[in-house]
Amino acid sequence: MKIAMVGSGYVGLVSGACLADFGHEVVCIDNDPRKIEALHQGIMPIYEPGLAELVASNVKAGRLAFTTSLAEGINGANAIFIAVGTPSRRGDGHADLSYVFGVAEEIGRHLKNPAVAVTKSTVPVGTGDEVERILAAANLPCAFSVVSNPEFLREGAAIGDFKRPDRIVIGAEDAFGRQTMQEVYRPLFLNQAPILFVSRRSSEMIKYAANAFLATKITFINEIADLCEKVGGNVQDVARGIGLDNRIGSKFLHAGPGYGGSCFPKDTLALLKTAEDYDSPLRIVEAVAKVNDSRKRAMGRKVIEALGGAEVARGKKVALLGLTFKPNTDDMRDAPSIAIGQTLVDAGVTVTAFDPEGMELAAPMMPGVTMAPDVYSAVAGVDAVALVTEWDAFRALDLDRVRALVTAPVMVDLRNVYRPEEVRAKGFTYISIGRP
Q1: Which one is catalytic: 18, 28, 228, 263?
Q2: Residue 436 has what pLDDT?
Q3: pTM here?
Q4: 263 in active site
């Protein structure tokens, strides 16, 4: 099949490269000429393990190409994926669909052959209906269908998620759309990946409901961690105890500084706005979003307390280890480190930081924070070390070396990476989340 992928960001590039690896002929389209030129040179716009190699191999094989011309890219395509950004709209929090609708209008101007338009972007319920209306209004000279096919990719593990999905959701309203999408994903049939065919609106709803539920699990265990600290429990033991119940499951029950990234914050907000528009309030999701926002600065205050409290924290130094919202990505969107760093700076604390991949993007977002060239430079002379993102590089620090470099041996582990007894045996005051 010939596939056009409109948008060469995180979702579009990963999806396009994986579809090419399945044997399809894929053209990735983007209106940013600098991004396309970089891709032609093998330079990735994002950090994702294995992506550069996957792109290079499929470009070499002639299955993957890049262009800035949508008219050229969709010519002869059987499926046209729309994978552009849907950021939160300024002022009201709704998903900004201007990029999606702009692409739909451009498809309407240039499509000459029968094709399926596939919304891969995360979009509110009813977006596919509007895309269909736009294409219908263009009086196309060919048959078309509009399908919803949400992505369920985890940053840092996206290639594996695409190639070995736990489910493929397809929202189609006609046989043309369903048959075309079956052919797109035919290479996954051998993996027995379940394909769930639903209505287009149900498909759009599934994506938001899934992210809201996962965000709820994260926020739930974070509040349980706070209670564990008060009553003397161990949140990791609690998480294991409840996670072994198959009705609950163990995933997303890791206490930490709150969720961030490109999906959960904006998707929960967009879902809340949709619920508001339809006069069907989602009180649980409202609480999740509110609690998560407040938690990030609360983690900054936790570090301040480890320094001895606000009265003595001013003038002290803290190292933040890890800035991205999760490991194996350079994504800084809504990362907890931003609020934690700002809370410390506001309290008069001098902050240095190190992250294996995220510092270039983090620097303009954290103007009061000094970026260090490596982890041991970051901790030199500080009064506390705060582990914010659980990169593998931070899981086995030379604690003796860290102890010799710091001014005060205080570690605040916001990801519960270390065993308390081991760190304390090295002479540190050790503070974690929801554990004694």
Answers
A1: 263
A2: 93
A3: 0.93
A4: yes
